[in-house]
Write a structure and sequence with these properties.
With 276 residues, the protein is an alpha/beta fold. It contains twelve helices and nine strands. The strands form two sheets. A seven-stranded mixed beta sheet has the order 4-3-2-5-6-9-7. The protein has a two-stranded antiparallel sheet with strand order 1-8. Helix 10 crosses helix 11. It folds into two domains: 181 residues, Rossmann fold; 78 residues, Helicase, Ruva Protein, domain 3, CATH 1.10.8. One of its GO terms (molecular function) is RNA binding.
Amino acid sequence: MKQLLQNKKLSQVFLYDSALIPQLINQSSLCHSDTVIEIGAGKGVITELLSQKVEQVIAIEKDPRLFDVLENRFNTTPNVLLVLGDGLKLPLPQESYKVFGNIPFAIEGELVRRLLDSVSPPTDTYLVVRKQHALRWCGVIKTSMFQCLYYPWFKLSIVHRFNTSDFTPKPRVESVLLRIQKRSEMLLSANQEDQYKSFIQQGFMGGKRIDQNLSTLISRKRLQELGREIGFTPKDRPSTLHASKWVELFKGSIKFVNDGVWDQKLRPTSDTDEIE
């Protein structure tokens, strides 16, 4: 029975507070006409409440033992589609959908990136994740490269902070409910995405000052002008400049670099370049 409740390889912890779960669902943007993907359905506690709130629930569970529990529980529930599989690998819908899930901590980073990078990302997402990662992704303590990379297209926020006693078994780390909302009005066009993300990676690369990181792209004089216009000091660290100002800096910079030079100078880098 103990193994059925928790598969340590999948880093599973389960929300079980009977009052808290409906409260979180009712406070979300979920409505009757929605299709909701639940990743990590577990024993179906959240699944059942979602099925009472939305038009269709696609409940994904990787653990075959828990999937058997789900099949027995929802075999007569018409608006619940059960899927045995890996939420990191299964195809995502092309039509509008939302995501709600108490996901395994082991896949949180990879899953968030998969949703954000999808050709058809969810319009709204609610995921239980570790607090330390959510704080960085949302730029709560300081601006992060991750936050900036997706800021023109998505709003990331923490909408609830859990107590460890809300879960079974009790986790060793604090967790929160992360909301990822697709912007109704994008701050940049889709055809600017690759250049913008390369610009952000360059801006954060190596943990140096903004003027040092962008020295191969923007002249010192122009960067100082942009600093006065936008409201920052070129010698500031990247993490001190709010994500919205990084978007303004990109817009102000791209006008002064011809396409050929821009494509040549901006090269994709890895997340490990965010040293701060």
